[in-house]
Amino acid sequence: MRALTYLAAALLAAATPAWAGDATRGAALAEARNCAACHGANGISAVPLMPSLAGQQAEFLLVQIIMFREGLRPVPAMMEPARGLTDAEIEDLAAFYAALPSGPAATDPRNEALAARGAELSAARNCATCHRPDYSGQAQVPRINHQREDFLVHTLAEYRDNLRVGMDTQMNGVMHGMTNADIRAIAHYLAHR
Ligand code: HEC
Ligand code: HEC
């Protein structure tokens, strides 16, 4: 609870006054911290299980990097890159990655039956209500199209199993009771649109 209060305070401080992220400074910082080694040149990941960051919502990026820095989203690989970043530096990194063009969609063959099942599940669970009809996200709700399929499978299973903690518990609730087969279908559908 104390951690959450602290996070809320950190976010408030970072979010006010107006958004001040500077993409040029963010690019230099990303270079210095070697973010591309894992997240790809231009923010499009070529490494298994590493999420793409290009075109991601700035507010989502900001929140997640603060959570890594504070140890609230505990990912060993992200500890060193996030260590000691100031709120202003995190705003710059978020501005840089948010401004890069996202995509493209996955190019491996689309399995029509699997994608259709994924679309059905997305409709039943109202994914588009929060992530928008084109799945490009809004504010703290991330873009989930143009993302690596393996990362989607991994992270959706983590939400379901309460291994990934978000800003709140919305995604844990959404994923409750989903089977591994459901998760594979929805990830395939999202990655191939
Ligand atoms: C050694 C590899 C590595 C480096 C270097 C690295 N990251 Fe990451 N990053 C990861 C991994 C792994 C994850 C996904 C963790 C998970 O599975 O939840 C991640 C997740 C993220 C996320 C959350 C994305 C999402 O869609 O959930 C952001 C934002 C991020 N990294 C930003 C950065 C920035 C900015 C840098 C440079 C300052 C950086 N990372 C450097 C490995 C790395
Ligand atoms: C009530 C709103 C809401 C609904 C409905 C919802 N999401 Fe989310 N989703 C969020 C929020 C908010 C986050 C960011 C949570 C966090 O901080 O980890 C998120 C995060 C995610 C992420 C993590 C992306 C990344 O890059 O780390 C994925 C994947 C995702 N949602 C997929 C889905 C799918 C698939 C559905 C439908 C089955 C769905 N969401 C339904 C609000 C929602």
Which key features would you list for this structure?
Cytochrome Bc1 Complex, Chain D, domain 2; 0% strand; 2 domains; 11 helices; mainly alpha; 56% helix; binds heme C; 193 residues
Descriptive overview:
The chain is mainly α and 193 residues long. The chain has two domains: 2-99, Cytochrome Bc1 Complex, Chain D, domain 2; 112-191, Cytochrome Bc1 Complex, Chain D, domain 2 (Orthogonal Bundle). Helix content is 56%, strand content 0%. The chain has eleven helices and no strands. The longest helix has 14 residues, at 2-15. It is globular and about 45 Å long. The protein starts with a helix and ends with a helix. The relative contact order is 0.15. The structure holds heme C (2 copies). One heme C (HEC) binds next to helix 8, helix 9 and helix 10. Residues 30, 33-35, 37-39, 50-51, 53, 61, 64-65, 75, 77-78, 81, 93, 142, 154-155 line the site of one heme C.
Describe the structure concisely for a colleague.
By secondary structure, this protein is mainly α. Helix content is 56%, strand content 0%.
Structural class: mainly alpha
Average pLDDT across residues?
93
Return residue spans where pLDDT drops below 50 for at least 5 consecutive residues: none
Instruction: Tell me the major beta sheet.
Output: none
Our estimate of the beta-strand percent is under 5%
Helix percentage = 55-70%
CATH architecture of the largest domain: Orthogonal Bundle
What does the oligomeric state look like here?
single chain
Q: Radius of gyration over alpha carbons?
A: 16 Å
